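FAQ: What does a ligand-bound record look like?

Like this one, built around GLP:
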Amino acid sequence: MEIHIVDDADAGAKVVADLFERTVRGAGESGAVLGLATGSSPVPAYAELIRRHREEGLSFAASRAFLLDEYVGLPVGHEQSYHRFIRDNFTAQVDIDDSAVVSPDGAADDPAAEAAAYDLRLRDAGGVDLQILGIGSNGHIAFNEPGSSLVSRTRVVGLTRSTIEDNSRYFDAPSDVPVRAISQGLGTILEARRIVLTATGEGKAEAVAQLAEGAVSARWPATVLQAHPDVTVVVDEAAASKLELADYYRYSRALERENPLTPQG
Ligand code: GLP
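The answer part, i.e. the structure of the complex:
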């Protein structure tokens, strides 16, 4: 796990956007498969990617995108649906084809069948090249709440009270927040070739400390990322405030910057 402690959300957005840019450019015409997340944490990175698209010609035309999750009961165009969120905050503002942005159908008649089909769709697409994640204050990623199986697949999940409270800011009233979601599982997320997780603010400090330094456990679902070989974590000082090894992470990043490893010939 590579941990970057940055001054603020804008600095973090650049680190995340660099990973996206490298993935998209590296895939060339065959196109990258991008794993997108909702929530406020990735929004500065999306804004930076939109800027690079407009000002620097970064093109997403060949890319496809898959969302992590969707509320059960909200149809695609619903104001609070995650599909709408990602369109409004990212995909409609770059040149990715709308039909190439895929999310679970929250309004499906059979949400469990839809979840299983979504998991297969991800596989059929060849898997995700780069997955961006936020983290819930209780350590959830996507909607894998504490207690989720570490090998879970895309499925219907019930949301905890704390998640409903956290997410009620997007709704008129907490009672409007759907109580279930279709979410990629922890095992599904781990199949992404590369993962970047971003978090800011003191409210995420405990979850970030567990993610990076806690014991791997269903109690803090994000700890499963310790078992993935290519995870980058980008956090501001407040979200990093409970990391015991913060000095080591800072030292490691400075070492890479100031004394990069070059092959000896
Ligand atoms: C929701 C989403 C998660 C997201 C989390 C944190 O629960 N399902 O994918 O990481 O919120 O959101 P925020 O970034 O707004 O704190």
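Follow-up question: can I read anything off the structure? Yes, for example: The chain has eight helices and ten strands.
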